[in-house]
């Protein structure tokens, strides 16, 4: 649809001709993940969990047993997100939920992926070599979603099912179980060792050399 | 004074749920100029998000930021009173809009839950000769705040340890005490950011002789309109040159490649001590949320 209707802003949707999104349902199988490659646009549906700085540090240092975590993480997707959630009539309501910078959990993510059988990470800005290697080894991909598009993305989450560590870590840092519906993202690191972030860094490094080197 | 408190709550709401017209215009221009499909689609979603947030009165970004106030207070009005009122308004706005509680106690690691803590929000006050109170608010995202850098010139920009890719590929670059050195520092900071902190950025730069002064000034430049240029021609030219160079790097919207990595570069210069030449760089994400209340 892009470029066809001048001046009109189109939604990312299954009709998008150029990007042609693939629909994914969680939990993801290894086969689902191996079929994805860098540059693919996806629409994710099903349960996903949030987890950011404190959750990652906790999972790696405390190594909680899988049975002590209230949500099934195997085959799951962790979303790097500290949402705005409001309790209205005893029910958690999502107000805004965009991604946070993934690179801050680079030191933890490889271990989290391997220990808990994670198949997908949603975040922004991409991750480093250590995570990329773990993704290749385990069968896991990185989904980049749109930085700061918090109201738009909250509308792609149908409901907040539950939360864990809300009091202890505070609402932004808790692990929330969300029900996604056609949540848009772009595969920027795949399970075959490719990374769009590494490619962009190469391009920008070449240019940087020209202008300051 | 209750009315002033309500005015500050409204200011919070406006700044959290809508972005200034000049920023939105710059993002629309970036969308029109973009040819990379992934970057174009990202700008498309960003523009839709701006509309959705405004229509539904919801925050544009879930990170409603570190509130930073720049207040001009008329003679005779108590600065302490204004600060207290800002704290009250912050507590109410956090619950009402709602804002995300972002104030975390360093000792206990507990979130205060209401965006009020030690030195949180940041409030700068100064006296004005005007007869009215002017309250400027910036909601500064944490992701882009983390990208800020301070350089002390002359210095060697070392690419041997920057990232695995730059090792052996770039060597060392000397940044001297001149505008060329300043330009190299800004490009170094943008390159190392690599799409983190939500580009297209607005970039504030300050050159001067004291460390606290340049960090204050570089952040304050983010309050300038995108269309604003520096009154000094040499600095205005430097702003324009650095912006063009940044946009030639190919990092692009959300770091997915493309033509627009920044929509503005705003520079401030302060007289320096002969021994010192600081260059400080503050990044704002595309959601450069700022606003003013006149009272």
How would you portray this structure in words?
- The complex is a heterodimer of chains A (213) and B (295).
- Chain A is an alpha/beta fold.
- Chain A has one domain (24-212): Fe-S hydro-lyase, tartrate dehydratase beta-type, catalytic domain (fumarase, Alpha-Beta Barrel).
- Helix content of chain A is 29%, strand content 28%.
- Chain A contains seven helices and nine strands; from the N terminus they run βαβαβββαβαβαβαβα.
- In chain A, helix 2 links the parallel strand 2 and strand 3.
- The model of chain A is unreliable at 1-17 (pLDDT under 50).
- Chain B has a domain at 144-288.
- Helix content of chain B is 38%, strand content 22%.
- The model of chain B has no long low-confidence stretch (mean pLDDT 96).
- Chain B is built from eight helices and ten strands.
- Chains A and B meet through helix 5, strand 9 and helix 7 of A and helix 3 and helix 6 of B.
Oligomer: heterodimer
Sheet/helix structural class of chain A = alpha/beta
Overall mean confidence score, pLDDT of chain B: 96
Low-confidence blocks of residues of chain A: 1-17
**Element string of chain B (H = helix, E = strand):** HHHEHEEHEEEHEHHEEE
For the termini of chain B, the CA-CA separation is 10 Å
Features of this protein?
heterodimer; A: 213 residues; alpha/beta; fumarase; 28% strand; B: 295 residues; alpha+beta; 4-stranded mixed β-sheet; 8 helices; 10 strands
Structural topology:
The complex is a heterodimer of chains A (213) and B (295).
Chain A: E1 22-25, H1 30-34, E2 41-50, H2 53-62, E3 77-79, E4 84-88, E5 91-96, H3 106-116, E6 120-123, H4 129-138, E7 141-144, H5 150-154, E8 157-164, H6 166-169, E9 175-189, H7 196-212
Parallel strand pairs in A: 1-2, 2-3, 3-6, 6-7
Antiparallel strand pairs in A: 2-9, 4-5, 7-9, 8-9
Helix pairs in contact in A: 2-3, 3-4
Chain B: H1 2-17, H2 21-33, H3 37-56, E1 66-74, H4 79-96, E2 122-128, E3 134-140, H5 142-145, E4 149-152, E5 155-158, E6 172-175, H6 179-193, E7 201-208, H7 211-220, H8 233-247, E8 262-269, E9 278-284, E10 289-294
């Amino acid at each position: 649809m892009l470029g066809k209707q001048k001046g009109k802003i189109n939604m990312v949707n299954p009709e998008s001709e150029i990007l042609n999104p693939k629909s994914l349902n969680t939990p993801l199988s290894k086969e689902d993940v191996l079929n994805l490659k860098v540059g693919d646009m996806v629409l994710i549906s099903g349960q996903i969990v949030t987890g950011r700085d404190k959750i990652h540090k906790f999972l790696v240092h405390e190594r909680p047993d899988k049975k002590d975590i209230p949500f099934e993480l195997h085959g799951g997707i962790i979303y790097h997100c500290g949402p705005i959630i409001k309790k209205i009539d005893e029910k958690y309501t999502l107000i805004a939920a965009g991604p946070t910078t993934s690179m801050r959990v680079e030191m933890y993510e490889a271990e989290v992926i391997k220990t808990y059988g994670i198949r997908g990470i949603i975040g922004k800005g991409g991750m480093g070599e250590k995570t990329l290697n773990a993704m290749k080894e385990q069968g896991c991909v990185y989904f980049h979603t749109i930085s700061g598009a918090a109201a738009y993305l909250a509308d792609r989450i149908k409901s907040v099912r539950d939360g864990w560590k809300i009091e202890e870590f505070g609402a932004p840092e808790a692990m929330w179980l969300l029900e996604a519906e056609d949540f848009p993202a772009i595969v920027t690191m795949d399970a075959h060792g490719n990374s769009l972030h590494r490619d962009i860094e190469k391009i920008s490094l070449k240019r940087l050399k020209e202008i300051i080197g | 004074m209750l009315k002033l408190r309500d005015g500050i709550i409204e200011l919070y709401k406006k700044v959290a749920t809508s972005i200034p017209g000049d920023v939105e215009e710059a993002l629309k221009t970036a969308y029109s100029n973009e040819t990379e499909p992934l970057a174009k689609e990202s700008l498309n979603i960003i523009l839709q998000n701006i509309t959705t947030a405004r229509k539904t009165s919801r925050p544009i970004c879930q990170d409603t930021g570190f509130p930073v106030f720049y207040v001009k207070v008329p003679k005779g009005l108590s600065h302490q009173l204004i600060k207290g009122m800002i704290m009250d308004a912050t507590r109410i706005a956090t619950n009402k809009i709602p804002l995300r509680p972002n104030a975390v106690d360093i000792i206990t690691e507990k979130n205060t839950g209401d965006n009020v803590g030690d030195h949180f929000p940041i409030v700068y006050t100064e006296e004005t000769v005007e007869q009215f109170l002017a309250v400027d608010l910036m909601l500064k995202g944490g992701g882009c705040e983390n990208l800020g850098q301070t350089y002390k010139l002359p210095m060697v920009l070392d690419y041997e340890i920057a990232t695995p890719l730059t090792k052996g590929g770039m060597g060392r670059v000397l940044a001297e005490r001149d505008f060329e050195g300043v330009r190299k520092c800004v490009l170094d900071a943008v390159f190392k950011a690599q799409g983190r902190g939500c580009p297209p950025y607005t970039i504030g730069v300050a050159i001067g002789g004291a460390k606290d002064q340049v960090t204050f000034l570089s952040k304050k430049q983010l309050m300038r309109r995108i269309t604003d240029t520096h009154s000094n021609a040499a600095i205005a030219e430097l702003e324009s040159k650095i912006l063009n160079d940044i946009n030639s790097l190919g990092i692009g919207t959300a770091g997915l490649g493309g033509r627009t990595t920044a929509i503005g570069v705003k520079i401030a210069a302060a007289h320096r001590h002969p021994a010192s030449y600081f260059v400080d760089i503050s990044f704002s994400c595309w959601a450069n949320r700022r606003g003013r209340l006149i009272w």
